[in-house]
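Exercise: predict the fold of this chain.
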Amino acid sequence: MTDVPAPTRESQTVVARFLDSLRASASGKKSFRQRLIPWLFLVVPLVLLITFTYVPVANMFWYSFTSWNGISKTKKVVGLDNYTEFFTRPDLYRVFFVSLYYLAASILQIALALYFATLLSFNTKFKNLFKGIIFFPYLINGVAISFVFLFFFQPGGTLDTVLGFLGMDKGSAPQWLGNPDIVNFSLAGTSVWRYMGLNFVLFLGAIQSIPGGIYEAAELDGASRWQQFRYLIAPSIKPIISLSFILAVSGSLAVFEIPFIMLDGANGSTTFVIQTVKLAFENNKVGLASAMAVILLLIVLLVTWIQRILVPEEEVDLS
């Protein structure tokens, strides 16, 4: 038998380098696969997001510079004429004032939701029942709510009957939906009833995330419920309150469902979105309607940016 020569130090070094290169190559491939896997899971959501969000938004910007009627194959470019028409026609931008009713209602809605969330965060009898009662309207379909409140506000309806039990003459009851002076108050009140549950759940979850030991320490120091809210609860849920105000402003500008279903924008209840939809699908002015939608989007972004500057996010440490 022929003896196999012992490996030299140089050959061992070469083999070690070769093995190290194989390991590095394998680890590189593994890290590449690890980086690729999350993107594979994101492919479908990204495709849906781009297809149904960003592409329509891009088309909306393009339509706003045309006089397209929504039917013709040709789209004549008119530049900034649609934007000029909007700002020179008071009947188009006057409907923004209707949003003030819903903005005031949204502020009231936030205040009520914060009050009930704070109250039901402490030991209260039947608090789980009250939580369900407050949140339940948000689960109901908007069409159903609109029809319910049509009967609620109609002459001789539920509201007039209740006021009659309280001593008000039914003949003197106002036209809740027929009087242009009060119709927006009625519709805004309907929005408060429906959407308060969403803010309530947001506030309730944020308040319950505060450690219970902090409340115990505050009670030992003699802090009242109001002092606990002012110095403990409010600072700790400041980001949620800020988010609610952003949603309130954007929601008040984009009100559509309830006034459209209940009155179709009649009696001075036309909102900005209702007017935009009617211009696009009834008057076949898709270009002008797209310009109005772009203006609404820019206003919402501007309000959000201003709110971020005035109320920056801060980390609150209550320990």
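Check your answer against the key: The chain has two domains: 1-63, 81-310.
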